[in-house]
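Possible regression after last week's pipeline update?

I re-ran a chain I had predicted before the update to compare outputs. Posting the input and the new output here so someone can diff against the archived version. Not blocking, just want to make sure nothing changed silently.
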Amino acid sequence: MKATISLLVVLALANASMVQKFPITYGGKRSIMNVMVEVENKIKAHSPLDTIKGVLDNFKSAVASEQGTHDEVYGAQKAECESEIAYRRAEVEDATGTLKIANGILKTSNILLKKTQATIGETENILNTVSLHIGLINDARKEDTQSYNRGAVTFNDAINAIDDSLDLAAALAKGKASLIQVAEMTTKLMKASVATKMNKAFMTPLAALAQITQEDDATSAAERLAQLLQTLRTTVEEAWTSYTAENTNALALFTQQKDLYLASQTRLDASKGRLTTKAENLQGVISVQTAVAQAATNKKQRNQTLWDDAADLCHSFDVEYNAVTAGRTQELVLVQELERLAERRAAEQQ
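New output (post-update):
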């Protein structure tokens, strides 16, 4: 019997060690060692078997009650754990989905922004080229206008010289002109010929003017000179009219080209404005989505940490429940051994 009691003591000590390893607050006053001592004393005192079983039944009831309470607490813990882990999992998945969408939008927006900025750069280059062409057209038109004005003065001076020569021809017909006047008028006509680049047209009138003083019939020579000069005047006027028409056509061409470039400039400015607005909108999207991605990242990290913490805590609940339940099971095994021991002892005493 002593050997049996000693074995039970060893088992009880092992069970106590397990309970101490995973301490709980249930049944703090219950002690299998006390029960074993009480049962041993009652066996020695030859107490009735029912009395001994009553002690053991009370202990088993306490263990069962405690296990039931622990089952309820553990069930609540498990439900809370599952709820918390499910919630944190959903939060992590939600943050992951949000982060994926935000990163996708960021990637697309950054690509579009780079393309838009590149297009803005190309548009600005074209605008600079168009502005340069408009400047060149303006400069060319300015130069042509100055050239036309100089030409206008040249033709006007030529016509005035011809008109003066006609007056001189009339004076010669009346014998009222001097050789000095003829020489001066010849010089004027020669200058007009060179200035207008109409040397061929001026050649015959100049020759007639140079020989008029050598003609026997001065009146006829003067009349012939007047006719030549009038023809020259008509030729110069026609040249002036043609020059003016060419200038007018050139002006229309310049205006047409300038209008085309100005229209292109207007379209390009409008396109640049739209592109600039698009770039600004994309930058706004990037700023917002960057903030969304950062918030999603923070949310994911925070909830992942809480998820891990909850999983660790729930695992500790499992370890505690399993360990303490195993301890109670071992207590019941010891109680059964004590009950068999008491029954054998009672049988021996009969």
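Follow-up from reviewer: compared with the archived run. DSSP finds six helices and no strands in the chain. Marking as no regression found.
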